[in-house]
Design a protein that fits this description.
By secondary structure, the chain is mainly α. The protein has 7 helices and no strands.
C-alpha cells in the first residue's frame, strides 16, 4: 500500500513539477525559495494524499498550497524585518577613550609593519590593505603564490610576536 502511494506521488510530481515551479517562480522571483516552496507543497500533498481522490485536479491544490506557503514566507520575512528595525545598538559611536585606543593600536601596527623585510611588507600591504588576492600579487610581483603564502605566514607570525609583547 505504501509503495502504491509513493508511486502515485511520484506520478503527480512528474506531471506537475515544471508547471508548479513556473507558477511559484513568477510569484517569488527567487530560484532557491521557489525550490523550497515546491518541495513543501509536495510534502503537504504527501500528508493529505489519502484524502485526494482526483489526481487530475491536484495541480489546483498544489497552486493553493504553494501560494499559501509563499504568503507565509512573506509574513515571516516581514516579522523578521520589523524585529530587526526595532533593534538599535546601544552605542554606535565610539567613546573618545575608545578612539584613542584604536588610534594607538593602528600606530603600533603600522610601526610593526614597517619593521618587516621589504618584500614581506609589500606583500602584506598588497594583500591586507589593498585587498589583492595571492594570484593578483603573484602576477604583479612575478613570484609564485607559494612564495607569497610563505611570506604572509612569516609576516603574520612576526606581527603576532611583536604586537603580543
Amino acid at each position: 500500500m505504501a509503495n502504491q502511494q509513493e508511486e502515485r506521488l511520484q506520478r503527480i510530481i512528474d506531471q506537475t513539477y515544471d508547471k508548479l515551479f513556473g507558477v511559484l517562480f513568477a510569484l517569488c522571483k527567487d530560484h532557491d525559495l521557489c525550490a523550497d516552496l515546491v518541495q513543501q507543497a509536495y510534502i503537504k500533498i504527501w500528508e493529505h494524499l489519502d484524502s485526494i481522490r482526483d489526481d487530475e485536479k491536484v495541480m489546483a491544490l498544489l497552486k493553493v498550497y504553494g501560494r499559501n506557503l509563499f504568503l507565509d514566507e512573506l509574513r515571516k520575512k516581514a516579522r523578521q524585518e520589523q524585529a530587526l528595525s526595532q533593534y538599535t545598538p546601544e552605542s554606535t559611536t565610539p567613546s573618545p577613550e575608545e578612539k584613542l585606543i584604536e588610534k594607538e593600536l593602528q600606530r603600533k601596527l603600522q610601526v610593526t609593519i614597517n619593521k618587516l623585510p621589504a618584500q614581506q611588507q609589500q606583500i602584506f600591504r598588497m594583500h591586507k590593505e589593498q585587498a589583492f588576492s595571492y594570484r593578483q600579487i603573484s602576477s604583479r610581483l612575478d613570484i609564485t603564490t607559494g612564495t607569497i603564502e610563505t611570506q604572509m605566514n612569516r609576516a603574520l607570525k612576526f606581527l603576532r610576536k611583536e604586537l603580543g609583547k
